[in-house]
Design goal:
InterPro entries: HerA_C, P-loop_NTPase, T4SS_component
Number of strands: 12
Oligomer: single chain
Helix content: 40-55%
Strand content: 5-15%
Protein name: Helicase HerA-like C-terminal domain-containing protein
Organism: Sphingobium yanoikuyae ATCC 51230
CATH topology of the largest domain: Rossmann fold
Number of domains: 2
Radius of gyration: 53 Å
CATH architecture of the largest domain: 3-Layer(aba) Sandwich
Shape: rod-shaped
Pfam family, one: HerA_C
Distance between the termini: 160 Å
CATH class of the largest domain: Alpha Beta
Structural class: alpha/beta
Order of helices and strands: EEEHEHEEHHHHHHEHEHEHEHHEEHHHH
Number of helices: 17
């Protein structure tokens, strides 16, 4: 089968053995590589990955131990394991075996051993974040409200700082948001913030940000038509299992949402190898497992194959394990009841071979051997065969720092992701709004205090003015009173005038009385009395 990947030579028969080929048209039906430590899983993974690359299929591998970085360099005849590799190649009939490198791009969520991988909080979305953090329905609803409000207000949620700021805003404005969107409680916001803090302490602050990964950079081929092998440095990342699971699930979800439907293409668009796959499922909530199952089930139609690599096949939930059509099972050890359960479970997943005791064979296969069952052209699983695995052509072992730097310098993504960008987003906008509101409140307070002080001063000044006016009025009244009093000379003149007038009056009256009423002969009669009366009247007039 020339259009497939040669995995190795099956159990010898009269014709010398059965070649085991991974059908490229069925390679997007996913797979499993399992086996105890030291049984050859990583070598098998490396050989399959480099074969995909040679056939023009881009590959993604999580390099947990650091040794998969050697896939970027050609093997060497002076390497300590060179004789074994050449011997195995001859044993299984590879006549053209030679050493070869593979085009590679190094990636690292921390940006230390490769291009930084980032995504934004908005691209992750509230649903996936809620499932990753194990939020309950109420908390998930609050998280959705935060995303909804941020979208309405044009607030970009790029990194964890933006989301934390948005949640703090929701807590401070819980009453207003509750009236619009439903109940928002500070307790729910606090629970979400604590989960985000846990994610941040595991390195989530490195993963969330810009520039965000363009998923098409995982789909590159070189000028020779070989698919690039995208190698994620995961040795440090493994210490943060929640972040590791977050990244892998996001990557699958992003591919599913971005890539078009292609059905079953002639060869996969991209193949993933997830080493230490149990970390995806350890302590994962049921909702998260459901999401992984959904993505694995559906992403096949996008032409993406997912291969889980793990020590124990029972690490993979049954619903997901049922989607893995291509299987390579290295040796398992039956030391514990759990190991025995794993052996039986692994044996039950294979198509029965009447010539092979599968349970026994699982414990007997040697390093570099495996039980292999691959999907056939019609999609049916092949009969399980005990198989000698083909040796890789690239280096078995890690690259050194100098070699890594050289490969990075010729990367097609060189310079694109290496410098973080922190543009204005929700955190900065909300902080600016808070500062503006605080400044406005301070200004209003200062104005109110100034107005109060001005009013008090005006009151004091008004009172002072009133007192001044009263005092002025008093002085004016006193002055007027003084001005109205006559002087001593005036009094003398007035007194003399009145005396003169009174004397004149009396004289006039006497004369008039005599003229009217006659002389003294009449004094005894009524005429004397009339004269006195006239004199009195005239005297009054001259006073």
């Amino acid at each position: 089968m020339s259009d497939g990947i040669f995995l190795g030579l099956g159990a010898p028969e009269k014709d010398g053995g059965i070649p085991q080929y991974l059908n490229l048209r069925r390679a997007n039906r996913h797979g499993l590589i399992a086996g105890a430590t030291g049984t050859g899983k990583t070598v098998t993974l490396q050989g399959i990955a480099e074969s995909f690359s040679a056939l023009g299929v881009p590959v993604f591998v999580a390099d947990v131990k650091g040794d998969l970085s050697g896939i970027s360099m050609a093997g060497s005849p002076t390497a300590k394991n060179a004789d074994k590799l050449v011997s195995r190649a001859k044993e299984i009939g590879i006549a053209d075996y030679s050493y070869a490198d593979n085009p590679a791009i190094f990636w690292d969520l921390y940006g230390e051993q490769g291009h930084a991988i980032r995504t934004t909080v908005s691209e992750m979305g509230p649903l996936l974040l809620a499932r990753l953090m194990g939020l309950n329905d109420t908390q998930e609803g609050v998280l959705n409200i935060a995303f909804k409000y941020a979208d309405e207000e044009g607030l970009l949620l790029l990194d964890l700082g933006d989301l934390q700021a948005m949640l703090a805003y929701c807590a401070e404005n819980a009453d207003t948001l509750s009236a619009r969107f439903g109940n928002v409680t500070k307790a729910s916001v606090g629970a979400i913030q604590r989960q985000l803090l846990q994610l941040e302490t595991q390195g989530g602050d490195h993963f969330f940000g810009e520039p965000a990964l363009d998923i098409h950079d995982f789909l590159k081929v070189d000028d020779k038509g070989r698919g690039y092998v995208n190698i994620l440095a995961a040795d440090k990342l493994m210490q943060s299992p929640k972040l590791y699971a977050t990244f892998l699930l996001w990557l699958l979800s992003e591919l599913f949402e971005t890539l078009p439907e292609v059905g079953d293409p002639e060869k996969p668009v991209l193949v993933f190898f997830f080493d230490e796959a149990h970390l995806l499922f350890d302590d994962a909530p049921a909702a998260l497992q459901d999401k992984i199952e959904q993505v694995v089930r559906l992403i096949r139609s996008k032409g993406v194959g997912v291969y889980f690599v793990t020590q124990n096949p029972i690490d993979i939930p049954e619903a997901i394990a049922g989607q893995l059509g291509n299987r390579v099972q290295h040796a398992l050890r039956a030391f514990t009841p759990r190991d025995q359960k794993a052996i039986k479970a692994a044996a039950d997943t294979f198509r029965i071979n009447p010539d092979l005791d599968i349970e026994t064979a699982i414990t007997e296969v040697k390093t570099g051997e495996a039980l292999v069952s691959l999907l056939q052209e019609d999609g049916a699983p092949g009969v399980v065969q005990r198989t000698l695995i083909a040796p890789p052509r690239s280096r078995l072992g890690p690259v050194d720092a100098k070699e890594r730097a050289i490969i990075q310098s010729i990367s097609p993504c060189e310079g694109k992701y290496d410098t973080a960008v922190d543009r204005e987003s929700a955190e900065e906008i909300l902080a600016a709004r808070g500062q503006a509101a605080a400044a406005a409140a301070q200004a209003a307070k200062a104005k109110a205090e100034a107005d109060k002080a001005a009013a008090a001063q005006a009151k004091v000044e008004a009172k002072q003015r009133e007192q001044e006016l009263k005092e002025q009025a008093r002085r004016d009244a006193a002055a007027a009173h003084e001005a109205a009093k006559p002087s001593g000379f005036d009094k003398a003149v007035q007194s003399a005038t009145r005396s003169a007038a009174s004397s004149v009056g009396r004289q006039v009256a006497n004369e008039l009385g005599r003229a009217v009423f006659g002389g003294s002969s009449r004094r005894s009669s009524g005429g004397g009395i009339a004269g006195q009366l006239v004199r009195g009247i005239l005297g009054s007039l001259f006073k």
